[in-house]
Design brief:
Nucleotidyltransferase, domain 5; Substrate Binding Domain Of DNAk, Chain A, domain 1; six-stranded mixed beta sheet; alpha+beta; globular; single chain; 407 residues; five-stranded mixed beta sheet
Length: 407
């Protein structure tokens, strides 16, 4: 194998690793253990085994610990959560490296339940310390990896609405994906809902608990899936490793529907995304709307060479955390900068004006404003405006404005 193409589903209770186009997926608990008498580290089930024998000290829930900037003491040494997460990833990546006899990572995609700036910086930092270049690392949400996984299957599986239940130790979540075909481009929308009815999987160990779990899941299924025609339904997560306890739920979801049990949807979806990054042209020519991607298009109406034109700053479907635009404008008879925000439902189109408060008063067309647009999440645009002056006649005053805009 000429370098690894890796998808990693990183959660607090487990981590799954899949290499693109390979059937094998590693599932290990997200835990790390240090030997009490040596510097040897163990991860996953091996970490629990050494803890039980008494020669190791274990730390779990590594993602939460690192994201909160927490620490843990192993022996007499205190470790930052970020360091422990990096060590965990280093040990976990040895599994595919040893299996496929290569140490090179060609492309790595992490998938997490929800993307945020702090978590991304944490994972990029860990990858950098593992000598994986920044350009080879990407981070996507579970919703996005769900899209990549489903779109990589046969078309009859996703030509309509696709539903998925994710049942894990920590939560019960329902995902839904729809394909909307337009004249110019096909749009794929994925949404999810954390269901309050989630339950601890330990209740499945008793007959009464299993019956209650089946009743809870069936009630959720009836509520979430009513009046919808599905082309397919997927079941994922540790809770669906066995299905003998969910008799009524299975009767419900299997009624006139294709149902698939796939325990590694997110890791495989991330691996498909990683493989696609290496192609000159994407195999997924769709506008994707999901957690981690913008749900609106942002543009500006400007006059260019005497003609009014629209300048695109960001498009619906762009990854918000990778999107940044910079442009210079010369206001003509106005003291505001205006942005046009167009969601998928164009009826909700709106104009957002930011006053140039504090900027110097000059004659028309004698001030240049630098506009920088980035995003704090898929619903929040971060706008920076700076006075650039106007040649040697009017030097820059250095005045800047920063404003957050809700899309």
């Amino acid at each position: 194998m000429d370098g690894l193409i890796v998808g990693i589903d990183l959660c607090d209770e487990y981590t799954q690793i899949n290499c693109a186009e390979e059937e094998k997926t590693w599932t290990i608990p997200s835990a790390i253990c240090k030997n009490k008498s040596t510097d040897q580290w163990y991860v996953g089930e091996e970490a629990f085994a050494h803890t039980l024998t008494g020669d190791g000290i274990i730390v779990d829930k590594l993602l939460k610990l690192a994201a909160k900037g927490g620490t843990a003491t192993l022996g007499e040494i205190r470790y930052e959560g970020k360091t422990l997460l990096k060590l965990f990833l280093e040990q976990a990546l040895k599994l595919p490296k040893q299996e496929y006899h290569t140490g090179e990572i060609r492309q790595l995609v992490f998938t997490v339940r929800k993307v945020d700036t702090a978590l991304m910086e944490l994972l990029y930092g860990c990858a950098q310390e593992l000598d994986i270049p920044r350009e080879k690392v990407h981070i996507i949400s579970h919703s996005e990896s769900f899209i990549y996984y489903v779109l990589s299957q046969k078309k009859e599986i996703w030509n309509g609405t696709v539903g998925m239940f994710d049942l894990s130790e920590e939560r019960l979540c329902y995902y839904e994906m729809r394909v909307q075909r337009g004249l110019k481009k096909t749009t794929v929308l994925a949404e999810y809902e954390n269901l309050e009815e989630g339950f601890n999987l330990d209740i499945l160990t008793t007959p009464s608990g299993a019956r209650m779990a089946d009743w809870i899941l069936t009630s959720c299924g009836e509520r979430m899936m009513q009046k919808t025609v599905y082309s397919s339904v997927f079941l994922t997560g540790k809770g669906f490793e066995k299905l003998d306890w969910a008799e009524d739920f299975m009767k419900l979801v299997c009624s006139k529907r294709r149902v698939y049990m796939e325990p590694s949807v997110f890791a495989k979806g991330a691996a498909y995304r990683a493989a696609d990054m290496l192609h000159e042209r994407t195999s997924y020519p769709f506008t994707m709307i999901c957690d981690g991607r913008l749900k609106s298009t942002v543009s500006m109406n400007v006059l260019h060479r005497g003609q009014e034109t629209s300048v695109l700053l960001a498009s619906a479907g762009d990854n918000w955390y990778e999107q940044m635009s910079t442009m210079d404008v010369i206001p003509d008879g106005q003291n505001t900068v205006e942005f046009v925000v167009t969601p998928l439902d164009t009826k909700s189109k709106k104009t957002v004006s930011i006053p140039l408060e504090g900027f110097p008063k000059r004659l028309d067309r004698t001030m240049k404003v630098r506009i920088q647009v980035s995003f704090l999440d898929e619903r929040t645009m971060d706008v920076k405006l700076k006075d650039q002056g106007f040649g040697e006649i009017f030097p820059s005053t250095g005045v800047q404005i920063r404003q957050e805009v809700m899309l």
